[in-house]
Structure formats: structure tokens, C-alpha cells
Design goal:
Layout lengths: L1 E5 L27 E10 L5 H4 L4 E7 L2 E7 L4 E6 L1 E12 L2 E11 L3 E11 L3 E7 L12 E6 L5 E2 L4 E5 L11 H6 L1 E3 L5 E4 L8 E2 L4 E5 L5 H4 L14 E2 L22 E5 L12 E6 L7 H6 L4 E2 L10 E5 L3 E8 L21 E2 L7 E5 L1 E5 L2 E4 L5 H4 E6 L16
The structure holds calcium ion (2 copies).
One calcium ion binds next to loops.
């Protein structure tokens, strides 16, 4: 999920609460008193009621284990309900990529009114579903892979979608990049390169719910890595990263001919993309309409060396507003409180612990809903909550079960 446009406050405003007694009704459930609950909707300034128009919104109200849904619109709704404490939530869609939500709670022991302020959230249709980067045994690091899923209800096109990466470094001291990162400007090829899906716009569709596997090297690593490995077979990957010899004559990378290559937009490594993200992250972005990423990456005004150094390595700086999805991982051996962020707070809130090395495990996004066999994934810009750490990831496997809520 990207950006909360209209920030804010899920206000439990004006919850006319008044607790009268909690006396048990001697007449039993049949005789439980009922009161009117008036639910009103509020929106932050920049989201006008007109924008809501006739969009269908759903009000869910629950008391204990009971939950019911009713339609609600800008006029609000009045419900006659048995007394009790209710949790209220409103959800709906403004457009394919913009959803609305809000919540409140109310104690209904006399006629009461609740006002729910709606927050407008722009959800990225394309997100990382899984990242496998725990690496193999004896320094084997070529087996990383990434899954990208279409988490929306519309066909999405991968053409031109770019990936950047932070990799390596324990990052327990503030990076020279930190002041820029906090402003939402990210060095895109710290992890080796900026890569992109090729295509002119509509060559690589991804159906709703469909995912692809992007391998660093599209080969069977279980036979290539030293004995005792738990590395994946990536010979069936959909895409691979090939840091081609057209870029550097001394490339150490191998092109596995059966699997199409990502385009390399800009690079600082001649070998592996996003080699080891024990502590680091990956992000996905798309240039605005009409902006060619190769031209952007060739424009010196978009390039920087590591601040405070005389280094000759130039990185392409990617603005946050182009970012679709950002995920960061942390080395579990490090104290969380000593780590510094890789992304601005609105793109990414907290890191998910990396999987154990040579475990065959990775981090995978939580399934929050399954409808007609299709999984929907959690995306709240918080990797710690959105991802499950250290779980077996079978490249391209489908998920059909809702995952339990994360522990608090
Ligand atoms: Ca490769
Ligand atoms: Ca290839």
C-alpha cells in the first residue's frame, strides 16, 4: 500500500457514549433493550462527499462475536440494535486503486450517534508477495528470488515496472543516505542495479491474483549450491536478472536461455542483483507517464554518489512518489532499535526479520482473504506486520488459506 493521501484519524469522534449501567436484563435476550444508533460519515477536507457519489460503502457492526454488514452512504444510517458495545467499520472503493476505510466504537445503552471519519488509501495493485534472500550454504548467494503479485481486481501490466534494492550492510549506524531517505529519495541501485520489466506497455499482463517469480539466476540451485543446501529450483522462474555482458565485459553472471531477462537500467555490480538482504530492502516503482526510465537514469541530475564520500560510484535517486511497494528486512542478530530505516515512514514502517540462513525459508506476505480460490495479501506499508518471517517459500506456489493475525 502506498500513501495515505488524506491522512488520518480514524476518529472515534462524537461517540455519544454514556454508560448507564451494565445491569443484566432480567428478562433474558428477548427482553434486551434496543436503541437507535445513528451512524454518520465524515471525510477529511480533500476528500469531498461528492467524490463518494453513489459509491457503495459497507458498514460492518459487531458486538462480541456477532458481525453484520449493511450498506451505508453519505447520508449515514440509523440502526435499531440491542444494547451493548459495538465496533463499527466502514469500507469501500473510490476507484480500482483507491479504497476508503474508517472505524469507531460505540456504547449503546441509550440512543447514540457515532461519526466515522473515512481515510482514503491508495493501494498499490502490484506488490511483493515473497522474498527469498536467506542465501545458501558456504557463501552461496545466487539463489535469491522475488515474487510479485497483482493484488488488485484489474489486469496489471508489468511493462516498465522497475525494481531497486538495498543490500548488504548491517546498517547499525546511520547511513549517509538517511537524511535523503527520510525525505523520500532512494538510491535505487545500492543492491547492484536498477532493473525493469521490458515491454512497450501491454506486453506482460498479470491477471488479478496472478504472481510471477523473478529469479536472480533461473537455474536449479539445489544442484549448484554446495552439498547440504536447501536452495530452490528456479529453473521454472518467469523472469531472471542477467547483468549482461553488453554492460560489462567481465560479467560474472550467466544467462539461462530459457528464461527471459529483466532489462538492466543502471548498475553498479557486474554480478548478482540484490545479493544478500540480511539487512536491506527491495522496492518497486514506475516512472510517470511519458518518462523513459533509461533517460531518467542517464540524466546526471538524478544521480548521486554516497553523501560525504569521494566515491566514483553513482546511484540513481528514485523519488518516493514513483514507488509502488517497498519491503525491508532486518538481520535477526541485530537489535531492532539500533537499525535505521531504508525508506521514508510513509512508504515503509517496520522491518520483517530475515529468514535463517540456508533454511530454504523466506518472508511471505500474509493472506488476509481468500475468495473463489484467490488470495488477497495484506499491504499496510509495514513489513513487520504484513509479512510472515522465516517460512518455507516454494517458488510460484499458490496460497489458499487465510493467515492468522500477527502477534501483537
Ligand atoms: Ca543472474
Ligand atoms: Ca535468461
Amino acid at each position: 500500500m502506498k500513501k495515505v493521501f488524506v491522512t488520518i484519524l480514524i476518529a472515534a469522534a462524537a461517540v455519544a457514549s454514556v454508560l448507564s449501567s451494565c445491569q443484566k436484563n432480567p428478562e433474558g435476550e428477548e427482553g434486551v433493550k434496543k436503541y437507535n444508533l445513528t451512524v454518520k460519515l465524515a471525510v477529511a477536507d480533500s476528500l469531498l462527499f461528492e467524490d463518494l457519489g453513489d459509491k457503495s460503502l459497507t458498514l460492518s457492526y459487531s458486538k462480541g462475536a456477532d458481525s453484520k454488514d449493511v450498506p451505508i452512504d453519505t447520508a449515514g444510517v440509523i440502526l435499531k440494535l440491542p444494547q451493548g458495545t459495538y465496533s463499527l467499520s466502514v469500507s469501500g472503493k473510490l476507484s480500482p486503486s483507491v479504497s476508503l476505510s474508517g472505524a469507531a466504537s460505540v456504547e449503546l445503552y441509550q440512543d447514540a450517534e457515532a461519526s466515522i471519519e473515512l481515510t482514503q488509501i491508495m493501494a498499490s495493485p502490484l506488490i511483493f508477495r515473497a522474498i527469498y534472500s536467506c542465501c545458501g550454504i558456504k557463501g552461496y548467494t545466487r539463489d535469491n528470488f522475488f515474487e510479485i503479485v497483482n493484488n488488485s481486481d484489474e489486469v496489471q501490466y508489468l511493462d516498465g515496472v522497475c525494481l531497486g534494492c538495498y543490500s548488504g550492510a548491517n546498517y547499525t549506524s546511520a547511513s549517509a543516505w538517511l537524511p535523503l531517505v527520510q525525505k523520500g529519495l532512494y538510491p535505487g541501485d545500492v543492491g547492484g542495479a536498477i532493473i525493469a520489466f521490458p515491454g512497450s506497455g501491454k506486453e506482460h499482463p498479470l491477471e488479478p491474483g496472478q504472481a510471477i517469480v523473478l529469479a536472480n539466476d533461473a537455474t536449479d540451485h539445489s544442484t549448484k549450491a554446495p552439498a547440504g543446501n536447501n536452495c530452490p529450483d528456479l529453473s521454472g522462474a518467469d523472469w531472471e536478472v542477467y547483468i549482461g555482458s553488453d554492460l560489462k565485459s567481465n560479467t560474472k553472471d550467466t544467462d539461462y536461455a530459457d528464461v527471459p531477462n529483466m532489462e538492466v537500467i543502471h548498475f553498479v555490480s557486474n554480478d548478482v542483483w540484490c545479493q544478500s538482504i540480511q539487512n536491506g530492502g527491495a522496492f518497486m516503482f514506475r516512472m510517470p507517464e511519458g518518462v523513459d526510465v533509461k533517460k531518467f537514469a542517464a540524466d546526471s541530475t538524478n544521480l548521486m554518489i554516497t553523501p560525504g564520500t569521494q566515491a566514483q560510484t553513482y546511484y540513481v535517486m528514485i523519488p518516493s512518489e514513483y514507488v509502488l511497494d517497498a519491503v525491508s528486512l532486518r538481520n535477526t542478530a541485530k537489535d531492532e532499535s539500533t537499525l535505521f530505516p531504508f525508506f521514508a515512514s510513509w512508504d515503509e514502517v517496520a522491518m520483517v526479520p530475515q529468514a535463517t540462513q540456508n533454511s530454504g525459508n523466506g518472508v511471505r506476505r500474509r493472506v488476509v482473504k481468500v475468495e473463489n480460490g484467490r488470495a488477497y495479501y495484506q499491504d499496510t506499508n509495514n513489513s513487520k506486520k504484513d509479512f510472515i518471517s522465516n517460512v518455507k517459500i516454494v517458488p510460484g506456489a499458490e496460497y489458499t488459506e487465510v493467515d492468522p493475525e500477527p502477534e501483537a
